[in-house]
Amino acid sequence: MIKKIFGWFDDRTGVKKLAHEALYEKVPGGARWRYVWGSTLTFALTIQFITGIFLWLAYSPGSQTAWESVHYIQHEMWGGWFLRGLHHFTAQSMTVLLVLHLMQVLLDGAYKAPREINFWTGLILLLLVLGMSLTGYLLPWDQKGYWATKVATNIAAITPFIGQDLQRIVVGGADYGHHTLTRFFALHAGVLPAGIVAVIVGHIYLFRKHGITAKTPYKKRDATFWPDQVLMDAVACLAVLAAVLFFVIKFHGAELTAPADPSEPFSAARPEWYFLFLFQFLKYFPGGTEIWGAIIIPTILVGVLFAMPFIAKWERNGRKLGHFANLIIICGLLSGAALLTYLAKAEDAKNPEYHLAVKEAEANAERVKELAEAPPGIPITGAVMLLRNDPKTQGPKLFAKNCASCHRYGGHDGLGQPVKDAASGPDLKDFATRAWLAGWVDPEKIVSAHYFGGTKFKDGKMVKFVQKKVTKFSDEEKAQLQQAIAALSAEAELPAQKTLDAKEADLIATGRTLLASEDMGCTDCHQFRKPDESASAPDLTGYGSRAWLTAIIANPAHDRFYGGNNDRMPAFADQGILDAQSIALLTDWLRGDWYEPDPATTAKK
Amino acid sequence: MSDSQPPPENQDRRSFCKQAACIGLGAGLGLIPVGAGLGVLFDPVHRSDGKGGKGLAIRVTTLNALPNDGVPRKFPVVAEKVDAWNKSIAPVGAVYLRRTGEKQVEALNVVCPHAGCFVDYAADKNAYLCPCHDSLFSLNGAVQNPNSPSPRGMDTLVVEIREETEIWVVFQNFRAGTHEKIPVS
Questions:
Q1: Chain A contact set for B25 (CB, 8 A)
Q2: Is residue A72 within 8 angstroms of chain B, CB to CB?
Q3: Complex ipTM over 0.90
Q4: Model pTM?
């Protein structure tokens, strides 16, 4: 019955003859490992088509959805990380296989007449695959892809005559946006794959037409493609897949850095490793001459590759001079590319700023993942807003830029970098905590650079009070001081002290009474919980709370704070230095008030 | 093939082993990328809306917005919507509300139980008319025309009156094309 159906089908399609022709091609001299490269490439391409279509099911090209959908694939969907990793690392393997295939073709002379056109279709396939890689790099719309691809499209803009228009066509406008992604996606998933399929059909047809370029002398008896060579090919494909799987599992899929943000620098941006040589090459072309490094020289070199079948015709006294020239050229090109790649890597390795940038990129990637998985989820304005509105991410940057010229944060500038000049304002790490406040009533600490040491208040009333009065406190008074400190710290309502404050509510209540009492002496200068026009030092009511901190950053010279005694601190809001959102971010960061995932939920995930 | 010399037995066996190995390896090689993608393909099957088919009470409007004459009015239902990676306040559907007493309101999901079209209220017929396949539903949602392709009447929804005047509807969608009213979760 099955035979009958197959016969009916074969009569109408000739599939049996086709399969026979495809499978029983003669392999002179027997199957050999050196013939496997074309098949491994076809296999890798098949993986890319399959995994690409599955990724397509979940990918959404758009500036507010691309990163988000890739994040969803990577962290939410079943086996999404594995699928994405497979697609990513198979793409990497294809570059290696392309070079191996090209080398084998050149070594065996399989590019020479009458196989010129086949060789050219191979070179076109090489360029198309590199195009796939370039377009695919942007699609996650993360910082890495965004900034690396910007370089590529800006290079397109220096093309003579048509550059500007070409760039606009590729980018889909004057700047990166939705249409950059729709265009890159159409290229990546439609135009280029269609081109690859069309050229590959021609490539395989021509390969079959001319037959294998068998390596002489023949080692064994002639064999057929099926099953001898197919088995070798399959084993080679298995090796490729094993290598890919090794990387997929080692790196837990492909990297996804923070969402693309045109206002955030990304010094860690590098193209994929196989484009690094071009990246490095461009460094040697000073302004105005990039066109040589980016377009003219690479085009000439590709031209030389295309000319190889003609160069090969150069023979003298039976010596294949052209063929050797070609081998020298390809070795030269590959060594050059390898050297440039090495130089690029070596320069990065000894560049501390690059290491810092990579570290920051990794931290941001991790942080945005936490925020995206937080209960409020990703807003429709996109995940880029998550980091922009995150005190933990923005606070240190704002501090380093606006505060670190006077203040320190744990001795550094907030971002972990040392500051050359001595501090001239208090160190704000652990701001308003009990431990930090205790330093203010410690006769030694208060005059250190950590507190008032660098300010004009180092000889002021507070210092005198601490050094003359507090040092003479009895044990009972010292205990009361601790209660007052606890009460003052509770004014801040710090998230980190929430449990402690709730637990010690009675102690805090006593401390609050002490703070307000005249015995303690605080209200001689400060006001606390009731208005006092004669107060000359910052208000202790709500000290360190969100509202209090926002107000003092807005204007420290306000009567409620230092008034006319204000040292050098600018009025950040009133002088228009920082907007309300920046001050809010800074405030929340100093107070340690930001989202942290619940360790129990994270462990469960 | 039948008239050619049969190959020696050991060569035949070797060739068979090779062919089997090829097929085995090929299947294994194909399984990895296809298997990796199947997880993503079938991912929606295991996801639910987190409400366990019970719906969520949503404030739709107030009693003052409903006429006393029992004529239905259409209201959008806006609620927190989880759309894959996004969480936002967005329209999730619509309801017809009809006053049946001073503080009594009936709610119908606007979606036709036949194939999911948006059912209109036809004022001239004082009934609901599905524009796709002409199902006619009476004001309480029951199927009115005997040749209606709809397997059941329009889906009623639970209404709660809160704070004297606020109309809250437990909003749910139900599977189309079934006789039973099965919640989509």
A1: 231, 234-235, 237-238
A2: yes
A3: no
A4: 0.89
